[in-house]
Every structure is written in C-alpha cells, then in structure tokens.
Amino acid sequence: MCGIIGIVGKSAAAPRLIESLKRLEYRGYDSAGVATLINGRIERRRAPGKLRELEAVLAAQPLAGDTGIGHTRWATHGGPTERNAHPHVAGRVAVVHNGIIENFAELKAELQAKGRVFTSDTDTEVVAHLVDQGLIEGAEPLAAFKAALDRLSGAYALCVLVRGERDMIFGARNGPPLVIGYGDGEMFVGSDALAVGPFTNRVLYLEDGDFAEVNHAGARVFNAAGDAVRRDIKTVASSAALMEKGNYRHFMEKEIHDQPEGCQRTIAAYVDALAGVTAIPGNVDWTHLERIQIVACGTSYIAGVIGKYLIEKYANLPVDVEVASEFRYREPAIRPDALVIAMSQSGETADTLAALRYCQAKGMKSAAVVNAAESTMAREVDVVWPIHCGPEIGVASTKAFTAQVCVLTAIAVAAARARGRIDQAEEERLVRAMIEAPRLIAESIQLEEAVRSVAVEVAKARDVLYLGRGPMSALALEGALKLKEISYIHAEGYAAGELKHGPIALVDEHTPIIILAPFDSYFEKSASNMSEVMARGGQVVFITDPEGAAHAPAGARVVMTAPSSDPLVAPLVMSAPIQLLAYHVAVLKGADVDQPRNLAKSVTVE
Ligand code: AGP
Predict the structure, then answer these.
(1) DSSP 3-state percent helix, strand, coil across the chain (nearest 5)
(2) What Rg do the C-alpha atoms of the chain give, in angstroms?
(3) Are 31 and 85 in contact (CB under 8 A)?
(4) Which helix (H) or strand (E) holds 173?
(5) Any atom of ligand 1 within 6 Å of the Cβ of 20
(6) Cα(162) to centroid(ligand 1), Å
(7) How far, in Å, from the CA of 439 to the mean position of ligand 1?
(8) Closest ligand 1 atom to 601 CA
C-alpha cells in the first residue's frame, strides 16, 4: 500500500509534503517523491529507499511552490527505483496513486499507439498520460480528469496536479481511502486523517467513485456519475501526540508498552464495569445466532482464531475463521443466517474487504472489528466494534492485536450469557477477569529483561518453532509471524500436539523452541511435548505462569513466568513475551523494526 498527499497551500509545499509523508511512511517505504507547481511549471524530486533519501535530495535541490503532491511507495508494478517512484509526470500532468490500475497494460498500449512515450514500468503512469491526452484534445482539466477515471478499472486513490492551473489539485477514490482536509484558506488531500493531521483536523471522507476538484477556496466533490454531491466535513481527534515515539526507540516498542492502556480502553467500551456485565454495541441476537464467520488476514486472522476458541468454549456458538484471501475465491458454502465479522486494524485490507462484501452479498449480517473508525470496512458493515488503542504505526501489529482479542473476549462472555451457558454470577466473575487483564498485561511486560537475554540466543537461530495448545496454539502462530516479519528469521507456529506428526524432525540442539503453556487444562500435554523436544536436543524457552513453572519438567533452557490469569484472558496476558521477543531479536539483528522490508502497514491491494 502507498501513502499520498496533496497540498494547495499558502506556504512552501515541499517541507509540508515531507512532514505528511513521514506520517504515511508506515504504509509503504521503498521509494518516495514530491512535485510542486512553480509559476505554472511542474518540478519534481524523487528517490529510491526511505523518505530520508528524498529529504537528502531536497536538501541538495530545494523545491519551491505552495501547491504540490507527494507519495511514499510500496511497489506493486515496477521495482522500487527512482524511475518508478511517484509522482509520475506526462506533459502538463503529475500524478500520485495508491492502488492498482488493473487494465493499465491495455491503456498503455493504446496511448503508446498515439505516440505517447512512457518512462516507467508502473501502472500509475497511464493516469498522467490519459489526463494529459485529454487536455491536448481540448478538454478542461476537470473533464479530462473525469474522462481518465472513466477509463480505469481497479483500485485507486489519486492526486493529480495540472500545470497551468496554478492552485488546483484533483483527487479521486475507488477502493483505497482518500480524505480532503480543510485548512484556513488552504486545502489538503491525503490517504487518511493522519496524513493531513499536521495541517487540519477537519476532514471529508470521499466515498468510492467520488472525485474532487480542490483549490484554495475549497473542494467541489462529484460522485461516479459526475453529479455534484455533499459529503460531511468531520472534526477528527488530533493525532499529533499519538504519532510520537516518546522515549521509545521504535513505534513497535511504544505500542507494546501501550497495550495495558489500549486494552483497558477497549474493554471499558464492551463491559459495564459497575453492573459487572458485558455491553456489546449493536443488537446482535446472540441467543439465536447460528454461526459466526470471521474473515481476516495476518495477525488479525490470528486474533480471530483466538476468538474462535473463546466463543465456542464459553458460548457453544460455532465460529469459522478463514484467511480472507482464500475464503473469497473458494466459493464457500455459506448460509445467510450467520454473522460475518471482518477483523482488520486498518479497516482497508483488500482481501478482508472483498471477503466481507462476499458475505454481505449472500445476505449475512456484518460486523467489523477495526482500529480506524472511518475506514471503508467501518462504513460498510451493519455493526462497528472499534478497538480503542490509538493509531498503530509499527507495521508489526501488537496493541491492535490484543485490543482485537479484547473485543472477541467480551463477545464470548456476552454470547455465553445470552445463550444461558453461564449465569449472572459467572458473567460478573469473567467481567472482573477482563477488567483485571490490563494490569496483568503490564506485569507480563515486566518480563522484558528476561526476554532480552533470550533474544541473544534466538537471534543466532536459523529456524525457530513456537508451540502451544488451545488458544496458545494461535498465539504460537502470532509469535512466529512477529519474529518472521521483523527479524527475517524463519519461524513456524504449531499446535503442540502436531509436533510428532512431522515438525519434530526439525528439532535439534540448534533449534529454539518457544512453548506457550499457562497452567491450564492443556498444561500436562504441553509439558509432555516439552519433554519430547528436549529429548531431541531442542532448546526450550518455556513461557508459563507461576503454577506452570512449579510443575514444568526440568531441562528447559529458560522458564519465563507471566502472571497467573483466568483462562479467558490468558491469550491477552501471554502476548507480550512473544511480541517483546520478536522486537528484541529484530533490534539485535539491526533490522528496521517499524518498517520491515517488503511489508506495508495495510495491504489495500490483492
Ligand atoms: C501484522 O503484524 C502484519 N503487519 C499483518 O499480518 C497484518 O496483520 C495484516 O496485513 C492485516 O492487516 P489489517 O489488520 O489492517 O487488516
């Protein structure tokens, strides 16, 4: 996914574009560029690599002009080179784009046949040529922009600058989000409210198919049919403070430490602490609901798996959880009397959005557990269940993950009560356990010193195995994903019972085995698995609680003791050690923790 920004301003655009791109860099960071209008001319600066490379170019070759566009890229078509960095320019037009133009090859061939010369391997460049061709053929800028949009198929959020129109930017949205920011005599167009956050907190969210002409005076917004439409201008919370790392070295480190607060705020939104009962927004009939279908990707998918374990155990309500990219194409046999829940931190992940829409088309009631309250998913479902952990900037999800689990934990208790599986006293006990969880998460984070020393060993490994049973098998998947995505060490998460069916062949004295095993109903089995791997030289890091530590077989390389907790909230309490382990291994390996290679914070393309 990429980040785009446009400014029709009253002061030098280049430094402001950079300031905004710094807030967008988590969306993609393999190249970046800016372009401004200077006395009717378009001037451009681009650089491969991180934003700091572009800043160096601008320091050497400053860019004037109060109106401009900027882009930070996660490459889809064309490698991460300067030649493929946005903005792309053709004639009088410059464009920055987030998404994929799916019919770009056909359009490129048509334009080349008209003698147009392309200078990049990207899909985006066709947009600049289409608009410029329209201008050459006599169309006014807005008409030329609209005509170009009508030729595109695929997903796009676009900002276009037209030479000769001194203070004008055109924006369009079809899929990936785009907002218009309202300043004092100046206007902004950006990928999200964070992008325009340094300049304004008054934003308008374009709908799919909308396009807009933006100048100093304001914005004219049109729908896909070309009719002028009015969209609400909203005042969003100032995000400046939430965007800072404070005393932490990385956003990920801060966000791991922010989890007690993020979970506390999230849990508070789903329980009535005074009455000691759950309070889930949206009138879902948990008593009669037949089934829940969860669709998600990555860490959000793993949160969904934990939700499955809890909801089925406590509420006896069937839950299917599927990776969205598989679900949407396999023609699943689904019936309308189910609730689909999209799990997504960004609320924009293309695969999850498509799977959600698939279920909605089949008549299912829909809900979304999201961190971005104004995201596409949040605006398309029947019921929104927001998490309240604040913007998550680190590409590796941590505080959003545990906040998502908080929501599904509350749903498990609410559904259990509604279906008569627990009485009021048990609901009150479980709600108390939830309210206590943030304190236990904070205690679990205190394992950081022990984790730091384990990280020294794990950082040397070629392969790492994570094992767990029950909800801990899902947490094993999450521990492996965290380690892979930020330290680039191969890791696998497995249900501990599966080990003997193959993966145990991997075990030798060079293989760290991280076993997650609180003293619960699975403990004895997990302890047996621990003995199996130690018998084969496996180096076991046993993450448990005090009771588990007292009963663990001897021989583990390390035993880490998280606080005791009710099984309902054990996944929340046991997350921090695996997050911290991935973080400290990545730091030891000198990896780019907040912006790992090849990744982006939200993947709004398939
Ligand atoms: C998590 O650490 C990863 N960055 C990734 O798997 C992420 O969870 C996935 O891309 C889904 O994103 P979403 O929650 O915004 O939909």
Answers:
(1) 40, 25, 35
(2) 25
(3) yes
(4) strand 169-174
(5) no
(6) 36
(7) 26
(8) 4
Distance of CA 68 from the midpoint of ligand 1 (Å): 31
Active site residues: 2, 601
Q: What is the 3-state secondary structure (H, E, C) of 49-118?
A: CCHHHHHHHHHHCCCCCCEEEEEEECCCCCCCCCCCCCCEEECCEEEEEEEEECCHHHHHHHHHHCCCCC
Given ligand 1 and candidates 255, 345, 375, which is best to mutate, with the most ligand atoms within 8 Å of its CB?
Answer: 345
Return the closest-CA partner of residue 193 out of 210, 172, 179, 174: 179
Entry pTM: 0.79
**Longest CA span, the chain:** 81
Q: What is the pLDDT of residues 137-146, one digit of tens each?
A: 999 999 999 9
Q: How far is the CA of 400 from the centre of ligand 1 (A)?
A: 9
Handedness of CA 448, 450, 451, 457 (dihedral sign): positive
Give the position, in ligand 1's atom list, of the atom nearest the Cα of 396: 2
Query: How many residues in the chain?
Result: 606
Which atom of ligand 1 is nearest to 398's Cα? 2
**DSSP code string of 324-366:** HHHHTTS-----SSEEEEEEESSS--HHHHHHHHHHHHTT-EE
Residues contacting 40, CB < 8 A, separation 6+ = 163, 164, 166
Q: For 23-82, how does the pLDDT look when each residue is reduced to its tens digit (9 = 90+)?
A: 887 767 788 999 999 988 999 999 998 899 999 999 999 999 999 999 998 777 777 788
In 447-527, at which residue ranges do the beta strands (DSSP E only) sit? 463-468, 490-495, 512-516
DSSP H or E run through 303: helix 298-315
What's the rounded Cα separation, in Å, for the pair 520 and 309? 14
Q: Whose CA is nearest to atom 2 of ligand 1?
A: 396
State phi, psi for 2 to the nearest 5 degrees: -120, 170
Angstrom distance (rounded) from CA 113 to CA 371: 46
